Every structure is written in C-alpha cells, then in structure tokens.
Amino acid sequence: MMPAARRDSPGRQPARLFVLGLAGLWMMALAGPLDAQETFSSIAAPQTSVRDILTGPQNRPRADTYYLLGLAAARKNNHAEALRQIAIGLRLDPNHLRLLSLRAAVWARQGRTAEAIAEFRRLARLYPGDEYITQSLRDLERPLKPRFAPVTSSLPPPPAKRDSPVAPVDTARPASPTRLLEASYFERMKQKQRCCYQMAAIKRAQEAQAAADASKKAAFDLQALVESGRLSARPVCPEGGEYGWAGGPTCSKHGDFATVEAEVTTVFADFNRGLQNKISRNYTAALQAFEQVCALYPQWSEAHFQRGETLFRLGDDRAALEAIRRSLQCDPGNLDAKLLLANLLFKVGHKEAALELLDGVATGQAGTVYGLAARSVAKAIRSGRNYYQVFPPD
C-alpha cells in the first residue's frame, strides 16, 4: 500500500530522494492446467475479479496469493509444491473456494480421482450454482470417449480415463479488460485513501464529542467539531464528496467509512509493509512484499516501480529494468519510472537510449523538478562523465 497527503507519502519517498539527488547535481553545475491427465495448458475463464478480492475479508489477498502460487506450481506439474501452497492458503482461509477447487483439481491430476470427485461433490452441495464446480464434477464422472474403433481382444479392457477439471482462475492476461483492474483504478484508490483518513479524523472527533456530552452523541455538525477544537480544520474530500454521519462517517462520493477503510487496508497493507522495509533498508523483505502486491495487482504501475527500485537497490539491474518497463507499460506517464529507467540504461551501457529518454522528460516537463533533473543529468552524461560520477553511490 499510503498517507493522505502527497507530502507525507512514503510511496513517493524513494522517487523524491531520486529527483532531489538529480536536482542537486544540476545545482552543483552539471541523478487449463488440468485439462487432461497428460497436459496442464487449458485454463478456464476467471469466475471472480480482483475487485471481488478487494471487497472480501482482510485475509483474502493473502489466501489468494497462495492460490496463485499453487496454480503456478501446478502448471509446472509440481504437484507437491502446489498442494503445499494450497495448504498454507487454507490455513489462512479454510473456506477459500478457489483453493479448495484447485486442490481437488490437483488431486485429479495425480490420479486421486475418488478423492477429487468426493471433494467436488461436497463443494457442489455448498455452492450448487457454481458453474466451474458443476462442470469439473461432470468431467470427472464422465469417462472419455474412445478415439478409435474398439479392437476385439481376449484381454480385459483398460480402465477408462477421466477428464481432469481445469483450473478455476486464469492468471494470464484476460481477454476482457473488466477482468483486471486498470492502472487508473489505483489512482482513484489514492484519492479514496485520502478520503478515508478524513473520515477517520471525523470519527475520532465525533466519538470524543459523544464521550464529553452524551446528549450530542446523535448530533453531527462538522463546523461545531471544528469550533470545539476536535477538528483542526473542516475535512475536505479530495473528489468533492460531502461528509455525513449514519452510525459512522459517510462520504457521498466514496461510501461509508467501514467499507472504504476495509478496501484501502486490503489494497495497501502489503504495499505499505514493503515501503516500511525499504525505508529501513531491509530490501529483501521489501522485495517479498512488492512481489506479492504485483502478483495480486499486475496493473498497478506504482507497485512495479517500487519493486524495480528495490531490485535496483539490491544490485539486480536486469530484473530492475524488466520491472520498470512493466511499470511504464501500466502507466506510460510515470515520471519516476522514466528517470529510474534512464539511470539503469546508462548504468548497463545504453547511453544513447538513456539520453533519448532524458531529453523526452526534459522537453515534456520543462520548468518542473523532473524536467530540470532530466536536463542536468543529460548534460552530465554528454560531458563524458561515467555512471558513478553522475550518480555517486549512497
């Protein structure tokens, strides 16, 4: 996950340090897996979207992460590892439908058909309208039709093979854009998070007022809360919503506080954990957090940028380049990613590509700190300085 105002945002801290370093340089005079028993390639269309994950309980993203890890292992025919990841996820959420379905599918792939059928029958009783479960059970219970004409033989016929169910969710990029959150969603989430902080302040002020005077428990007046000193200023929704009270703070633009808080916490929890570890220079732990975020939210440009910047700090330039390019695929206007990409290109010897990128930022962002920093770095590179002269180590 990010503070309410830009000046407090730890998510921009690395970017701010990077830009200030570049500007300082300028000032100094120049910074389905289970489609059949033999294959694991056919995948069913996803039955739930990432948005469904976001609105679920807080432990869902972690359980879904182990689902993705289990699915990846199963695609590689590593059934033991798949079942291990599934077991971890089920300890976090014992009723996670997709983990239970994937476990049954892996059992079928292992030849444990009876167990798989029993599990799918149990799930069918619990979720009678689930198309994936119904189809998987039908496939398992229906023998494969013979591909060739039968041959007369005195030997008993071999046991019929059964279709294995396909995986319940496809982790590849879906054909329909509605199946994957767009990059703009995360910009909206930043606004929603800022609104969440405003509502949290309202909640604290209103509860303090009720504790001081029980007769005012049901009364809600923002101006009165400001005049009493319980709010330092009148809260303002970043997207123009009007605040109210209905058993708790509400916003006409974003909804009630409990729902907004749950969504914001779900989206930003692991992201913020990664930022905290990165700020404290625990880059290995930060990388683990950002990789989990990128697996869950693959269209989030900022998550890919933070992952790339962390890899850069760890010295893995090749992986950092891939992550930064992925960030720019999600959001081509991410200036922090462009500057870091120019840094990396210059570092690995692609001087002309770095200069082209810097010149584009300098022209497109003329007069801004990004434009000035890009211009000063480009000037330093053209002067013949090497990488470590332009970007001195920390």
UniProtKB/TrEMBL annotation:
Positions annotated as TPR repeat: 63-96, 301-334
Alphabetical list of SUPFAM superfamilies matching this protein: TPR-like (SSF48452)
InterPro entries xref list: TPR-like_helical_dom_sf, TPR_rpt, Ycf3
Region ranges (Disordered): 148-174
Alphabetical UniProt keywords: Repeat, TPR repeat
Name the UniProt record assigns to this protein: Tetratricopeptide repeat protein
Species of the source: Candidatus Ozemobacter sibiricus
